[in-house]
Protein: 4-hydroxybenzoate polyprenyltransferase
Amino acid sequence: MRLTRNFFEYAEMIKLGHTLFALPYALAGFLLACFSGFGFSPVKLFWIVLAFFGARSAAMGFNRIADAKFDAENPRTKNRSIPAGRITKASALIFVAFSAIVMIVSARMLNELCFWLSFPALIVLLGYSYCKRFTSLCHFVLGLALSLAPAGAWCAASGKFSFSIIFISLALLFQIAAFDVLYALQDEDFDTSKKLHSIPALFGRQKSIMASSAMLLLSIVFLYLTGTAFSLGKIFYAICAAILALYVLAILIFIKSGIKKIDLVFFYINALCSFLTLAAVALGGLFK
Structure:
């Protein structure tokens, strides 16, 4: 029972469910490599997924450690595992170190390129945690950190880098940044009072929604460019149109209801768009 309780505590600490936002993009990057002639390998897929979970767990665990003081002062986050005392900082740090090792070992099992890239990737993943202290561009740094997933999966499957994979990485970057801006509206007043930086704290609600809308539009543009770069079939573009419709729906819901329906917008629509992106790549590559 204790082991199960500890698992759920750590899963809650790193918001395990949030992997639904970026993991589909990592799998899409892997599929793009497969469709580009590098072949499907279940073993590579296993190590890619394990590296992804290691990287994300290290990043989220470190974020909880870095933000523990602010989380304890914020009514919305004071019941998180570390400020509530259910997980100590020392235990969380051990968890982060273990997760980082899992990422690095998994990268080494894939190829030498992934191994060497895992170190600067970790710097970005861990460095994000301090961005709110000095820049309102923190949302883009988060997007950058997660956008490494499809590019990393491509490198893992192909053993080399290609500029073509940047398009889908940029699509993820702007999707994550856009939804993170909307999510940050919950803490607009708190961030302002603590002199933390974010787009909502800098520009307020209306301009933040406008900025988020522009980012989602850019995300769609880069998705379409992905289809062009990899010569994906018409079904890819049809699904992209459905994703665009969901983006519009998310903004309209937020304009009408604000943070009252943040869970619907941030969790469900965000995750659904990521899975639709994976479906678009899979079907677009199979039915060219």
Q: What stands out?
A: DSSP finds 13 helices and no strands in the chain. The two ends are 50 Å apart (CA to CA).
